[in-house]
Amino acid sequence: MLTADFVDGFLTNYPEEIQKVSRKLRDTVRHEMKNAEEFLYYNAINYSLSSSPLDRVCYIRPLQKRVTLGLLFGRQLDDPKQLLRGFGKRSRYVVVKTEDEAKNSGLKDLVKAAWANGPASVAELRQLVRVHRAELRRNRKQNHANHRRRPHTRKLQH
């Protein structure tokens, strides 16, 4: 877990309103994700099941005019208030521009659900990565074996 001073130091790079929004989101995330590891990664405050970036569940990314609350497995979450944006296989995000928006109870619900689903989501992703890497190794071995069996011939030029 990072010390508050380290995160505050990171946030000083942003306008005051963005710092306030980021701190409010941070309070929400830390309250709902009690045992999460907090660390900086890719210019964002990340929350993970472990100290590994591969186990991330959520991040807070301050920018100059807004803050992005990212949920790495957000696609599978119920979003009755339709706050989530994005497309793709897994992640979704919420754009937060004001401190009042950061107080939206829907954000708390999304963070809570993301943390509850986090262990299963991370385990599933890790399994997919293992299968993919095994397939890559198998294909490399097969390509290497095929390459060794081909006779090396050249066309003669007349």
SSE order, as H and E? HHEEEEEHH
Number of helices: 4
Structural class determined from secondary elements: alpha+beta
Which word captures the global form?
A: elongated
What Rg do the Cα atoms give?
A: 22 Å
Description:
With 158 residues, the protein is of the alpha+beta class. It has one domain (4-149). Helix content is 47%, strand content 16%. It contains 4 helices and 5 strands. It has helices spanning 4-11, 16-32, 99-102, 105-149, and strands at 37-40, 45-48, 56-62, 67-71, 92-96. It has a 5-stranded antiparallel sheet. The longest helix has 45 residues, at 105-149. The termini are far apart.
Brief account:
The protein is α+β, with helices and mostly antiparallel strands and 158 residues long. It has 4 helices and 5 strands, in the order ααβββββαα.
Indicate the topology.
Layout: H1 4-11, H2 16-32, E1 37-40, E2 45-48, E3 56-62, E4 67-71, E5 92-96, H3 99-102, H4 105-149
Key words describing this protein structure:
five-stranded antiparallel sheet, alpha+beta, 158 residues
